[in-house]
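Forum: Protein Structure Q&A
Topic: Joint prediction for protein chains with partners

I've read a bunch of threads here and the consensus seems to be that you should model interacting components together rather than docking separate models afterwards. I'd like to see that in practice. Below is the full input, 629 residues plus whatever partners are listed. Could one of the regulars post the assembled result?
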Amino acid sequence: MKKLVIEPITRLEGHGKITVFLDEEGKVDEVFFQVVEFMGYEKIVEGAPIEEVPRIASTICGVCRAVHFMASLKAGDQVFSVEPPPVAKKLRELLLSAHHIEDHTEILYAMGLPDFICGPTAPPEKRNILGVAEVVGKEFVKDILQKRFSAARIVEILGGKTAHPAASVPGGWSKSLSEDEVKEIQKLADECLELGKQSVELFKEVVLKNPEYSQLLKNENFNVVTNYMGTVDEKGKVAYYEGTKVIIDPEGNRIGEFEGKEYLNYFAERTIPWSYAKFPYLKTVGWKGFVDGTGTPFCSVGPLARLNVSEGYSTPLAQKAYEEMVEFFGGKPIHNIFAYHWARAIEILNHAEIVKELSQDPEITDPNTCNPVGEVSGEGVGIVEAPRGTLIHHYWTDEKGMVTDANMVVPTTFNNGAIQMAVKKAAKFFLKDGKYDESKLNLIEMAHRPYDLCLACATHAFPGHNPFELNIYSHDRKLIKRIRNF
Amino acid sequence: MLVVGLGNPYFSDDGLGYRAVRELCRELPAVHLLSPGTDLLRVILGKRRVAVIDAVKTGEKPGTIQVFNLKELKSYPKSSTHTISISDSVSLGYTLYPEEMPEEICLFGVEAKDITTFKRELSPEVERALPYLLKKVRSFLTG
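Posted by a regular:
Agreed with the consensus. Here's the joint model:
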């Protein structure tokens, strides 16, 4: 048996490793997507005052900073038994949407779309944002970046700090918006709106109008058929800051909905020796190993999952784009992994419309951004939709609000099972003849990019040491040597 | 001018950039970023002289200070888990915004001993190097 190792996985946050086992005929036999980075934030926040946790949690990741901040802030509200005033919720929503725009844009243009714009078999040094500039022109990339900077500036205005927000306070938001700031945000919102429209059009232009790529979207080899989870508002439209968490099965039937800590009724986590990241699965189905299709235990999250569980988007332009996408696939749920990129582009548009709407809300400058805190309840669950999917922060505190325990379930962890299957399917499809070169290895990696992995976020388990296992197999797959430290 | 400190303040020597920003922010414009990405590009556009501070892993003795001219550097030694690397971000800037990019931009790196242990303190070797690093940065930006 031959073993291929792709390490480190390029263009994603964190460290990972894909190991491919080929059989004697050179066909793919087994594939492991391994998380090898190690963080430990659930332990790090122990002992910290809950009101300080958002600022600590925002350093889990340089990319997803605003969402860990927001989920832990919502949990802090519950710990202090306080509901933020309407303006504070709107400011939080505004920041969350602006963050989604900056995050999705970086992921789409710098990580996901280069595979299509520069070509999936282009050499790695050309298959990046600089390569995108070469293909579509410098002015186009400058324009996109400038608009992304507009979203980042909105985050900065609202969060009070470059990149990592600092304006959290249980029961509200520590700063109100001035009239001048609102005017600036409204102007920036127009830029974001253009960015959203451009992103949806670019996807159509680059992917749908290219017969080879368009075919990939309908190729069943790239369908990873799972359950899906996302958040919806009272009209069933995609929601991000708050709403009902909905779970559907692979056929689209609603099989669960929950709020807050009821997530524990639906999910269990399985630890696998070869990965730091845990594998959440639906308790109602039970652990069945790495299988997709009807009865799969895995539940995907993220832009495509949100689209699948919802009745569309709350804003007109995004809703129109959604209807076009559903028509292309002939209905829902959509299981093709490359559709994640399409849904991501639509979400940029949706968020831009939300930012525009909130920035024009007359209440947005209300100076009463905080409510007084109540009794310490000792427990809080904050759930938001992060760019990569549903993010859960669950904290327990002592009577003074000091964290005694924490559980963070992040989108890349929810998607861990689906990613395993996506990578295996891609390996089987592209390595049929056992011949491999760099271009084929990239084709396999294309299967994880739609999930917009964030391994930095996914590896917050703290086993106390770094588990390591080396297995050596003979050609007939007999284990002849195992070396491990756990 | 601008100081950009990179890295995670909670992982020992990876917190070098954060520590440096804390030390310098009273006397120089300074900003901390966890990772570069296009955020680095956003903050350096329009600045004439920029000092980027980060922990590096190049195989040198821990605490060794190295200065890289990012304008000329084609391949920057990887330090930690950053999405779009420092060199990619800076290259992108000079490709797209040649007029707005700094005339001078250097990476002030200190060889890290430990960037994986949860610890707010730097390793003794990197802590000892910090005053010398700050002196070099001040001299580069104001000299």
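DSSP finds 17 helices and 16 strands in chain A.
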